[in-house]
Write a structure and sequence with these properties.
Strand 20 (414-418), helix 14 (422-431) and strand 21 (436-439) form a beta-alpha-beta unit. A seven-stranded mixed beta sheet has the order 16-17-18-15-14-20-21, with helices on both faces. It has helices at 50-69, 72-88, 90-101, 105-128, 161-174, 189-200, 216-223, 237-248, 272-280, 300-314, 335-350, 380-383, 399-407, 422-431, 464-471, and strands spanning 6-9, 12-15, 18-20, 23-25, 30-34, 41-46, 135-137, 140-148, 152-155, 179-182, 208-210, 230-234, 254-257, 263-266, 295-299, 354-357, 370-373, 390-396, 411-412, 414-418, 436-439, 454-455, 458-459, 472-479. It is of the alpha/beta class and 488 residues long. The longest helix has 24 residues, at 105-128. Helices cover 39% and strands 21% of the residues. The radius of gyration is 24 Å and the shape is globular.
Length: 488
C-alpha cells in the first residue's frame, strides 16, 4: 500500500475510492479485494452504501443535461479518446485484471483489452450513422429521433470485468446518457482505472461515476432510485429477480444478461477434430463464461471416438499461474465459487454420474477440468449453471432427440452446433431456443449483432442499434404540411 486510498498491483497504482462527480470519494467502511492467484490481499476498497449510491445518482442527474446536449460528433470524439487511453494503458489494465480475477494474461493482452478499446470506438462510430429514415403518412412527415434517457445504472460481473463493463458503458455514453457503474466486488480494480482514463480523455465530471460495494448494500439503493432511467445487469438469475423487483416501483426499463446452460451438439457428419476443439474450448477462463457450451450432446455412433479424442486433448491442458504464457486454465475466482463448483460435482457423482476426467479440487482455487457422463436429463448438473470447468456428455440417436435435449432447460443464452450438413444446420438452428447460435465455430462476436438470452437467460438485446434502442427514448415527431405562418 502506498497510502490509505491507493494500492499498487503489479507496479500499477490503483485508487481504491469511488469516483463520483469527477472526484474521488472514500467511504467510512472498506472491503478486502483478494487475488485468486495466490490469495494475496490487493487492497482495501471503499465499501459503498446508500449514501454513496445517492451521491452518484445525484452527480449523474446533474451532469445529464449538459452531456445529452453535447453534439454527437463531440461525444464520439471523447469516446475515441477513451479508447486511446485504454490502448495506451493496455499492459497495465491487462496485468491488473489478471491479478484481480485470475483470467489469462495472454488473453487480456491479445483479445480482452483490445476489445475494451474497440467497444468505445464501435459505439462512437455507430452513433454518427444512427438514424431512421423519415417517412410520410397521408402527407404528414414522420421523423424518429433518439433521445438520451437519463442516468443509467450498470451492474457488471467478475468474469470479464472491464470488457463487459465497457460493453454497457460505451453505448450508454454514446447515446448521451450519464452512468453509474457498479463493478463486481470480487474484481473492482480496472473499473477504477477506467474512471481515470475517462477523466483524462475529457469526459465531463459526473458523466461516468464508479461506486464499489457489496451486493445489496449498495445495489438496492441504486436500482430502486427514482432518478435512474435505465438499469443494465449481467449476472445470476436470483440477483436479476431482486433487481427486477427493486426497479418495478419506478417502472425502470431493464436489460438483463443472465446465466446459461448452453448445449454443444455434435452430429456424426461433423468434423470430429473441429468438434473436439470446440468442446475443449469450453474450459476457457476456468469455465467462468456464461456462453459456454457446457452440455455436450453427441450422436451415439461417434460418442466413443469423440470422448476418446476429447479426453486426450483435455488432458494436455495446463493449469497454473495465469501470468505464465504456458498456462491454459487459471484459478477460479473465489473460495465461495470453488465450493459451489465442487458441490455440484460431488452431488452429481453421488447421484450416479461418472467422471471421465476430473471431478475434484486441486491446490489453491483450481478445479480439475471435468467431464461427467451417465447424467440424467432432469438432474441438477444438467439443468443448473455451474460456472466452472465442468462439462456433461449425453448422447442422442436422432436429430429430433438432439433438439429436444438441447432445448430442455430453463435457459436459452447460446448454442453451438457441429455438423457437416448445411441443410441440417439450418433445420436445427431454426428450432434451437437461444440468443446466439454458432455453427462450426464458437465465441465469434460482432458488436453490431444483437446479443442477449431467451427464457431465464435474460431480457432484451444489446449490440449495434439494439443498444441504442435500449439506452434511448425513441420519439416520433409527426408534422403537418400546413398551418405554418409566413415570416417573410
Amino acid at each position: 500500500m502506498t497510502d490509505t486510498h491507493t494500492t499498487t498491483v503489479a507496479g500499477v497504482a490503483v485508487d481504491t475510492r469511488h469516483w463520483i462527480g469527477g472526484e474521488r470519494v472514500a467511504s467510512a467502511g472498506t472491503f478486502t479485494d483478494v487475488s485468486p492467484i495466490d490469495g494475496a490481499a490487493l487492497g482495501e476498497i471503499s465499501r459503498g452504501t446508500a449514501s454513496e449510491a445517492a451521491a452518484a445518482v445525484a452527480a449523474a442527474k446533474a451532469a445529464f443535461p449538459g452531456w445529452a446536449a453535447t453534439p454527437r460528433a463531440e461525444r464520439a470524439r471523447i469516446l475515441h479518446a477513451i479508447a486511446d487511453g485504454v490502448e495506451k494503458r493496455l499492459e497495465e489494465l491487462a496485468i491488473v485484471e489478471t491479478t484481480d480475477n485470475g483470467a489469462l494474461l495472454r488473453s487480456h493482452r491479445r483479445g480482452v483489452m483490445p476489445r475494451v478499446a474497440h467497444n468505445f470506438r464501435f459505439f462512437a462510430d455507430w452513433l454518427l450513422r444512427l438514424d431512421h429514415e423519415d417517412f410520410e403518412t397521408r402527407g404528414h412527415a414522420n421523423h424518429v429521433s433518439w433521445d438520451p434517457a437519463g442516468p443509467c445504472v450498470l451492474i457488471t460481473p467478475w468474469n470479464a470485468p472491464l470488457m463487459l463493463a465497457t460493453w454497457k458503458v460505451a453505448p450508454a455514453l454514446a447515446a448521451g446518457n450519464t452512468v453509474i457503474l457498479k463493478p463486481a466486488e470480487w474484481s473492482p480494480l480496472t473499473a477504477s482505472l477506467l474512471a481515470d482514463i475517462a477523466a483524462e480523455a475529457g469526459l465531463p465530471a459526473g458523466v461516468l461515476n464508479v461506486v464499489q460495494g457489496l451486493g445489496s448494500e449498495i445495489g438496492d439503493a441504486l436500482t430502486s432510485h427514482p432518478d435512474v432511467r435505465r438499469i443494465s445487469f449481467t449476472g445470476s438469475v436470483p440477483t436479476a429477480q431482486r433487481i427486477s423487483a427493486s426497479a418495478a416501483a419506478n417502472l425502470t426499463p431493464l436489460s438483463l444478461e443472465l446465466g446459461g446452460k448452453s448445449p454443444l451438439l455434435v452430429f456424426a457428419d461433423a468434423d470430429v477434430d473441429l468438434a473436439v476443439d470446440l468442446a475443449v474450448e469450453q474450459y476457457d477462463n476456468a469455465g467462468q463464461v456464461c456462453l459456454a457450451g457446457t452440455r455436450l450432446l453427441v450422436e451415439e455412433s461417434i460418442a466413443e471416438e469423440f470422448t476418446r479424442r476429447f479426453t486426450e486433448k483435455a488432458s494436455r491442458l495446463v493449469q497454473g499461474d495465469p501470468r505464465d504464457g504456458a498456462t491454459d486454465i487459471g484459478p477460479n475466482i473465489h473460495p465461495r465459487q470453488l465450493e459451489k463448483i465442487d458441490g455440484f460435482v460431488q452431488r452429481a457423482l453421488a447421484a450416479g454420474a461418472r467422471a471421465v476426467i476430473g471431478g475434484h479440487r486441486k491446490d489453491g482455487l483450481f478445479y480439475a477440468p471435468t467431464l461427467l457422463t451417465d447424467v440424467a436429463q432432469d438432474s441438477e448438473i444438467v439443468q443448473e449453471e455451474v460456472f466452472g470447468p465442468v462439462l456433461t456428455l449425453q448422447t442422442f440417436g436422432t436429430e429430433e432427440e438432439a433438439v429436444r435435449l438441447a432445448n430442455d432447460t430453463r435457459f436459452g443464452l447460446a448454442a453451438t452446433l457441429a455438423t457437416g450438413d448445411h441443410e441440417r444446420a439450418e433445420r436445427v438452428t431454426a428450432r434451437l431456443v437461444a440468443g446466439t447460435v454458432w455453427v462450426n465455430c464458437f465465441f465469434v462476436r460482432d458488436l453490431q449483432a444483437p446479443f442477449g438470452g431467451s427464457r431465464h437467460s435474460g431480457v432484451g438485446r444489446e449490440g449495434g442499434t439494439w443498444s441504442f434502442d435500449f439506452y434511448c427514448d425513441l420519439k416520433n415527431t409527426v408534422t403537418a404540411p400546413k398551418g405554418w405562418r409566413d415570416h417573410g
